[in-house]
Amino acid sequence: QVQLVESGGGSVQAGDSLTLSCEASGYIFDLCMAWFRQDPEKKREGVAAISTSGVATWYADSVKGRFTISRDNGKKTLYLQMDRLKPEDSAMYYCAATNYCGDSWSTRTYNYWGQGTQVTVSS
Fold it and tell me: How many CB atoms lie within 10 A of CB 20?
C-alpha cells in the first residue's frame, strides 16, 4: 500500500508558475504515475502522465507546452511544474499511481490516489 501526499498548490495570478509535489510513502520505481485535476462541476481529467523510469511523458492538449511532469524515484516524489497558468487551470489537483500501467487517462487505471491540492488562478 502506497500513500500519496500532494503539496504546492495555492492562489496565483494568470501567467504565474507553481510546482506541485507528490510524496509517496513507499518506493515508486515500479509505478506509473500521473496528475489529474477536477473542477467541482466537471469530471476528473488527466493532465500529465509519466512512465516508471520517467523517460516517457504524456500531456493533455490543454496543458501541452506549459506543464512539465517529472519524477525522482530516489526521493519517492512526483512533480508537476506549471507555467503560464490560466484561470481555466483552477482545480483540485490529484496525484495518482498504479502498479498496472495501462490507459494513462482513465481514472480506473490508478489504484493509489492522494487527497489533492487546490490550485486557483485569477485573471
Answer: 23
User: Beta strand 91-98 with 112-113: parallel, antiparallel or unpaired?
Assistant: antiparallel
Predicted confidence at residue 40, as pLDDT, reads 86
C-alpha cell at 120: 486557483
- Residue 61: strand, helix, or coil: coil
Q: Which amino acid is at 92?
A: M
Residues 117 and 53: their CA atoms lie apart, in Å, by 25
At residue 122, the pLDDT reads 98
d(CA 82, CA 73) in angstroms, rounded, equals 20
Per-residue pLDDT, 33: 98
Cell of residue 69, nine digits: 511532469
Residue segments in the chain with a per-residue pLDDT below the cut of 70:
none
The per-residue pLDDT for 1 is 85
Backbone angles phi, psi at 87, to 5 degrees: -55, -35
Given a contact cutoff of 8 angstroms between Cβ atoms, the answer to whether 17 and 1 are in contact is no
In order, the DSSP letters of 78-111 are: EEEEE-S--GGG-EEEEEEEESS---TT-GGG-S
Q: What is the pLDDT of residue 41?
A: 87
